[in-house]
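pinging the channel bc i need a second pair of eyes. not urgent but kinda urgent?? the chain im working w is below, pasted from the shared doc
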Amino acid sequence: MNKKILEAIADIAYFAGAKNYSSGDSRLDASEFILWAEQFESLNSDANWDQRDYILEIEDFANAKIQEASQT
């Protein structure tokens, strides 16, 4: 696993915690955060983070995923 993925996992977990998100199964949550981080990195593989705000982008992405997961 590369450093970008690890950073994305940490950021997503942080935002999920800030939103008090939990499915009730911490292993499921961890697996979801890993999957979400992989999706985020795949969607943004060509991103120029000197021109885009990484924190705002991943926060928006994480919030959308959290909202989606909360509705299931």
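so The chain is about 70% helix and 0% strand. and Residues 3-70 form one domain. — does that match what u expected or am i reading it wrong
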